[in-house]
Amino acid sequence: MRRIRIASRLGLRARITLAFSIGALLLSTLLAATTWTLTREKLLSDRESAATVVVYTNAQTVQRRVSDTNPNELLETLLTPLGGRPVLLTGDETVSRTPAFGGDALPSELKEMVESGRPARMRYDLDGEMQFAVGVPIPSADVSYFEIVSLDDVEGTLDALGVSLVAAALVTTLAGAGLGWWASRRALRPLGGVSTATMALAAGRLDTRLDTGDDPDLRPIATSFNEMAQTLQDRIERDARFASDVSHELRSPLMTLAASIEVMENQREDMPERAQAALDLMKGDIERFKQLVEDLLEISRFDAGVVHLDLEEVHLAELVMQAVSHSTDADVPVELDADLAGVVVNADKRRIVRVIANLLDNASRYAGGATSVSLRRAGDEVQIAVEDAGEGVPPEDRERIFNRFSRGSASGRRGASDGVGLGLALVAEHVNLHGGKVWVEDRSDGSPGARFVVQLPVEAQQ
Amino acid sequence: MSTHILAVEDDERIRTAVKLALEDEGWTVTEASTGEDALQRFHETPADVVLIDIMLPGIDGFEVCRAIRRASDVPIVMVTARADTHDVVAGLEAGADDYLTKPFAPKELSARIRALLRRARTAEVSSPHLRFGDLEIVPDEGVVRRNGDNVHLTKTEFRLLVELAQSPGRVFSREVLLERIWGYGYFGDGRLVDVHVRRLRTKVEADPANPRHVVTVRGLGYKLQV
Asked: What domains are defined for chain A?
């Protein structure tokens, strides 16, 4: 058998949902990271530019007044709108407005660069806080002017932004998962229809088709499904017709054979013994042949779906007794439940008789004959049970023996090779047609043997 | 003179085999292979029993049945392909008295023929004049009159009516009627009774849809209303 793999360990819907979630997560993380980085750079450089402008302005003031003003007073007069902390380096002396931000708070690299006569600026970390320092040399007074601006509040803004971005990424991921779940559900919904149609087909409603609809994506699937169903239906109907045609064709020669055998039978006394033996063999086999053809015809009618029940009100106990007394096994005792005396069922007499005859026939063929036929009421149902004293039916065979041409397990446990193999299949078909059930179980009294039970519904009309 | 059977069957081998088997019963068999052939032979030599296969080339079995029925009340046994189709009812409505499905044993056929012949003869038992409203039955003469006019019944219809009329008011189940009229017993086809009752009603009832004489007793059978 060729199998096309469609399933993986994880469900299709779970996989789609997962893919959507991972996609949403990656995308939102990328977006968040980019946003954060760009915003950070922008905020920091804006602050640094502004600080630089302030520093240069202050540096000019310092240059103008450093020669005639006390450095400490000079620093006090400077305007620092960005919170800059001014530092003035004059030779070996350091003057600062804020003691905590003196010369030590400046990176030495920056100091060296400025002292060598070039203005410089630097972003650096001081005791865990981000600082920005700008230094401007003032060669005319042989001093260097610095300002240290804290970037910490920018960092605070950035942290808040980061939190928002992470939250947004999480929400996006969840939304992605939700979208994936919903999309997969939508995408899988047509599959549900296909599955329903497939089950209907499997259950024998061969005329089941999918509505091809207008959806360009689904139409090919629907069309190919319908083609498959049509092929299947054609094939099954052809097979059913074939069986029916063959059996029909067989009936004419059978008719001739049956009539001719009877003519020969009438001349039996004039025949030598060996010819009589041959005649008996022929007679027996023509009978079997006839039964087989009849069974085949009957079953092909089920396959073609052209059966209908000839329902009439039947006194069940009488029907069972008559069926047994007209069977090949007329001596089998019939046990009746007392409360069944007046039970009338709506049944097709011919089919129920066939059911009982086939069960008795099955018993005599494989189990040395039935030991009893019993009829009892079970709630809204009646059960007809045929018991035998054979080997019984092993549990693994109990469903299979109702299949066509099945004769017990492969080892041939249920014996003789003369079985036709349609008897029990027909029993099942007839009983199902009546809305009943048939099964085989162990005998109720524990003795070896099989118990075939036919359960039929009783209408609440008596 | 021996009983004469007209066997209409298009399959020559079956026809020959059935003829051999029936001749073993001591009966005379005339063969016909088509409907036209059958009608011509029937007019030349009326038979005591006619056996017709429904599936015939040309004029089909139903038509042959109707044509013979128009001219005669001879018992007709029909051979159908299947028991559970409309063929059986259609054949009975065309006038057949009984039917068999292929493949049947010739022994069964001769049993059916014997039942039909016996019936035709035992219909002449002595019974009093029976009267039910507008209906008058004279079993001894084999005559039924409605409002004084003769009603033409086949032998089977007549037997059915007499059977019911001899115990007026009593309900006869299909099984009982099958046994008494057709010799079948429990496993006869109830449709034989139903279709014959229907045919009978069209002849003896003023309004066959609302029968006043031969009435149905639901779930039980039929009776002749007093």
From this structure: 16-157 (3.30.450.20), 219-304 (1.10.287.130), 312-461 (3.30.565.10)
